[in-house]
């Protein structure tokens, strides 16, 4: 099998250490931890009181014209975390402008995006379970 070259042109991340590559890397080198007491809900009834939460994340500010407040309420937060990281990677790779316009010609058949997720979607799963408990299944 013939080996193919892969070129990484841009990086993006949103994680408990920071909401972009620069902030995450700086906090990692400074030995900071992204694990802290849970703030996104009241953990007092839980055995575990700590987690790696993404903090100060404002998708409307970061994605601008592409989403509305209504969209934020409908979709799972995971979607917006991935979109913001993808936007950062595309900006870093100079594939898009700050206005999110494509720069130059991109062969869509030879370009790709890799998304990695540790664990998420829990809020959506919780919402579905609560709905099914209240309304029952179809």
Order of helices and strands: HEEHHHH
Give the strand order of the largest sheet, numbering strands 1, 2, ... along the chain.
Answer: 1-2
**Rg estimate, integer Å:** 18 Å
Please name the CATH architecture: 3-Layer(aba) Sandwich
Considering the protein shown, what is the CATH homologous superfamily? Answer: Thiolase/Chalcone synthase
The biggest beta sheet reads: 2 strands, antiparallel
CATH topology: Peroxisomal Thiolase, Chain A, domain 1
Helix content: 25-40%
Number of domain units: 1
Given this structure, which CATH class is correct? Alpha Beta
Our count of helices gives 5
Number of strands: 2
Provide a quick synopsis of the model.
The protein has 138 residues and is mainly alpha-helical. The protein has one domain (21-135): Thiolase/Chalcone synthase (Peroxisomal Thiolase, Chain A, domain 1), CATH 3.40.47.
Q: Could you please describe the fold and organization of this structure?
A:
With 138 residues, this protein is mainly α. The chain has a single domain, classed as 3-Layer(aba) Sandwich (Peroxisomal Thiolase, Chain A, domain 1). 36% of the residues lie in helices and 4% in strands. It contains 5 helices and 2 strands; from the N terminus they run αββαααα. The protein has helices spanning 21-29, 59-63, 69-74, 77-92, 122-135; strands at 35-37, 50-52. The chain starts with 20 loop residues before the first helix and ends with a helix. The model has no long low-confidence stretch (mean pLDDT 85).
């Amino acid at each position: 099998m013939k080996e193919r070259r892969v070129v990484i042109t841009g990086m993006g991340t949103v994680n408990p250490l920071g909401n972009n590559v620069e902030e995450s890397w700086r906090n990692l080198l400074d030995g900071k931890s992204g694990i802290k007491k849970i703030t996104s809900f009241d953990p007092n009834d839980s055995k575990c009181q700590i987690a790696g939460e993404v903090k100060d994340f404002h998708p409307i500010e970061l994605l601008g014209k592409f989403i509305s407040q209504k969209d934020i309420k409908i979709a799972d937060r995971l979607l917006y975390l991935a979109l913001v990281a993808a936007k950062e990677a595309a900006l870093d790779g100079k594939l898009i402008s700050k206005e999110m316009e494509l720069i130059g010609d991109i062969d869509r058949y030879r370009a790709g995006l890799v998304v990695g997720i540790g664990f998420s979607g829990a809020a959506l799963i919780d919402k579905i379970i609560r709905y099914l408990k209240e309304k029952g299944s179809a």
